[in-house]
Amino acid sequence: MLTGRCLCGAVRFEIAGALGPVIYCHCSMCRRAGGSAFAANASVRKDAVKILSGSELLTEYKSSPTSYRQFCSRCGSPLFGGSDDSSITRIRLGTLDNAGGARSIAHIWTGSKSEWFQITDNLEQIDREPPESYCAPG
Ligand SMILES: [Zn+2]
Ligand SMILES: [Zn+2]
User: Fold this and answer.
1) How much is the pTM?
2) 101 CB burial (10 A radius; 0-12, 13-18, 19+)
Protein backbone atom coordinates (compact mmCIF):
# COMPACT_ATOMS: atom_id res chain seq x y z
CA MET A 1 0.00 0.00 0.00
CA LEU A 2 1.44 3.36 -1.05
CA THR A 3 0.64 6.47 0.95
CA GLY A 4 1.02 10.15 0.29
CA ARG A 5 0.03 13.59 1.45
CA CYS A 6 0.11 17.24 0.53
CA LEU A 7 2.62 19.67 2.01
CA CYS A 8 0.43 20.81 4.91
CA GLY A 9 -0.68 17.24 5.63
CA ALA A 10 -4.41 17.93 5.48
CA VAL A 11 -4.97 15.81 2.38
CA ARG A 12 -3.80 12.23 2.91
CA PHE A 13 -4.35 9.32 0.57
CA GLU A 14 -3.44 5.72 -0.06
CA ILE A 15 -3.11 3.78 -3.29
CA ALA A 16 -4.04 0.11 -3.37
CA GLY A 17 -2.81 -0.56 -6.92
CA ALA A 18 0.62 -0.52 -8.49
CA LEU A 19 1.97 2.59 -10.15
CA GLY A 20 2.46 2.72 -13.88
CA PRO A 21 5.75 3.90 -15.34
CA VAL A 22 7.09 7.25 -14.19
CA ILE A 23 7.06 9.94 -16.84
CA TYR A 24 8.35 13.48 -16.64
CA CYS A 25 5.99 15.93 -18.29
CA HIS A 26 7.51 19.15 -19.61
CA CYS A 27 4.26 20.58 -21.01
CA SER A 28 3.62 24.24 -20.27
CA MET A 29 0.60 23.44 -18.09
CA CYS A 30 2.55 21.08 -15.83
CA ARG A 31 5.37 23.61 -15.58
CA ARG A 32 3.00 26.34 -14.48
CA ALA A 33 0.95 24.11 -12.19
CA GLY A 34 4.04 22.92 -10.33
CA GLY A 35 6.21 26.01 -10.71
CA SER A 36 9.08 23.85 -11.91
CA ALA A 37 10.78 22.39 -14.96
CA PHE A 38 8.50 19.38 -15.25
CA ALA A 39 5.95 17.25 -13.39
CA ALA A 40 6.84 13.72 -12.29
CA ASN A 41 3.75 11.56 -12.78
CA ALA A 42 2.68 7.94 -12.70
CA SER A 43 -0.73 6.54 -13.56
CA VAL A 44 -2.96 4.51 -11.27
CA ARG A 45 -6.54 3.33 -11.47
CA LYS A 46 -8.90 5.94 -10.00
CA ASP A 47 -10.60 3.29 -7.93
CA ALA A 48 -7.26 2.36 -6.34
CA VAL A 49 -6.93 5.82 -4.77
CA LYS A 50 -8.57 6.36 -1.40
CA ILE A 51 -8.63 9.82 0.19
CA LEU A 52 -8.05 9.29 3.90
CA SER A 53 -8.47 12.88 5.07
CA GLY A 54 -8.87 16.39 3.74
CA SER A 55 -11.23 15.60 0.87
CA GLU A 56 -12.99 18.91 1.61
CA LEU A 57 -9.73 20.71 0.78
CA LEU A 58 -9.08 18.73 -2.41
CA THR A 59 -9.90 21.31 -5.05
CA GLU A 60 -10.13 20.87 -8.77
CA TYR A 61 -9.00 23.17 -11.55
CA LYS A 62 -10.35 22.34 -15.00
CA SER A 63 -7.41 22.88 -17.32
CA SER A 64 -9.63 21.91 -20.25
CA PRO A 65 -13.34 21.01 -20.41
CA THR A 66 -12.59 17.36 -19.61
CA SER A 67 -9.24 17.64 -17.79
CA TYR A 68 -8.83 18.18 -14.08
CA ARG A 69 -5.93 19.09 -11.85
CA GLN A 70 -6.57 18.49 -8.17
CA PHE A 71 -4.65 20.27 -5.45
CA CYS A 72 -4.84 21.07 -1.75
CA SER A 73 -6.56 24.42 -1.36
CA ARG A 74 -4.67 25.11 1.86
CA CYS A 75 -1.05 24.54 0.80
CA GLY A 76 -1.35 24.35 -2.99
CA SER A 77 0.31 20.95 -3.45
CA PRO A 78 -0.64 19.44 -6.82
CA LEU A 79 -1.85 15.89 -6.19
CA PHE A 80 -3.80 14.30 -9.05
CA GLY A 81 -4.56 15.06 -12.66
CA GLY A 82 -6.24 13.46 -15.60
CA SER A 83 -9.27 13.23 -17.77
CA ASP A 84 -12.87 12.99 -16.53
CA ASP A 85 -13.67 10.23 -19.03
CA SER A 86 -10.75 7.98 -18.05
CA SER A 87 -10.56 5.29 -15.37
CA ILE A 88 -6.97 6.35 -14.72
CA THR A 89 -5.56 9.29 -12.75
CA ARG A 90 -2.03 10.61 -12.58
CA ILE A 91 -0.33 10.95 -9.21
CA ARG A 92 2.15 13.76 -8.69
CA LEU A 93 4.94 11.57 -7.42
CA GLY A 94 6.48 14.16 -5.12
CA THR A 95 3.49 13.77 -2.82
CA LEU A 96 4.11 10.07 -2.16
CA ASP A 97 5.85 8.83 0.99
CA ASN A 98 7.47 6.23 -1.25
CA ALA A 99 6.84 5.14 -4.80
CA GLY A 100 7.15 1.38 -4.35
CA GLY A 101 10.13 1.09 -6.69
CA ALA A 102 8.41 2.70 -9.67
CA ARG A 103 10.81 3.25 -12.59
CA SER A 104 11.08 6.29 -14.81
CA ILE A 105 10.90 5.67 -18.56
CA ALA A 106 10.56 8.93 -20.46
CA HIS A 107 10.40 12.69 -20.73
CA ILE A 108 7.27 13.79 -22.57
CA TRP A 109 6.16 17.01 -24.24
CA THR A 110 9.83 17.93 -24.58
CA GLY A 111 8.79 20.21 -27.44
CA SER A 112 7.49 22.50 -24.67
CA LYS A 113 10.54 22.11 -22.41
CA SER A 114 11.85 25.21 -20.66
CA GLU A 115 15.07 26.65 -22.03
CA TRP A 116 16.59 26.75 -18.53
CA PHE A 117 16.48 23.01 -17.94
CA GLN A 118 18.78 20.50 -19.65
CA ILE A 119 17.83 16.83 -19.83
CA THR A 120 21.04 14.96 -19.04
CA ASP A 121 19.77 11.41 -18.54
CA ASN A 122 19.35 8.70 -21.17
CA LEU A 123 15.59 8.28 -20.88
CA GLU A 124 13.49 8.36 -24.01
CA GLN A 125 12.38 11.86 -25.06
CA ILE A 126 9.00 12.34 -26.73
CA ASP A 127 8.23 15.81 -28.01
CA ARG A 128 4.44 15.42 -27.69
CA GLU A 129 1.91 13.12 -26.07
CA PRO A 130 3.25 9.67 -25.16
CA PRO A 131 1.83 6.35 -26.37
CA GLU A 132 -1.17 5.19 -24.38
CA SER A 133 0.80 2.35 -22.77
CA TYR A 134 3.01 4.90 -21.02
CA CYS A 135 -0.04 6.11 -19.11
CA ALA A 136 -1.32 2.69 -18.06
CA PRO A 137 -1.41 1.73 -14.38
CA GLY A 138 1.08 -0.82 -13.13
ZN1 LIG B 1 -2.24 20.77 1.99
ZN1 LIG C 1 2.00 17.97 -18.57
Assistant:
1) 0.94
2) exposed
Give the number of whichever ligand sits closest to the CA of residue 76. Answer: 1
Q: How far apart are CA 103 and CA 23, in angstroms?
A: 9
Give the Cα separation of 115 and 35 in Å (integer). Answer: 14
> pLDDT digit string (tens) for 78-90?
999 999 999 999 9
Residue-number span of the structural domain to which 36 is assigned: 2-135
Identify the nearest ligand to the CA of 11 by its number: 1
Alpha-carbon gap, residue 41 to 21, rounded angstroms: 8
Domains of the chain: total: 1
Ligand 1 centroid to residue 76 C-alpha, Å: 6
The number of the ligand nearest the C-alpha atom of 82 reads 2
Q: Say yes or no to pLDDT of 21 above 90.
A: yes
CATH number at residue 109: 3.90.1590.10
Is the CB of residue 70 less than 8 Å from the CB of residue 13? no
Q: What does the alpha-carbon distance between residue 129 and residue 60 come to, in Å, rounded to a whole number?
A: 22
Q: DSSP letter for 5, please.
A: E
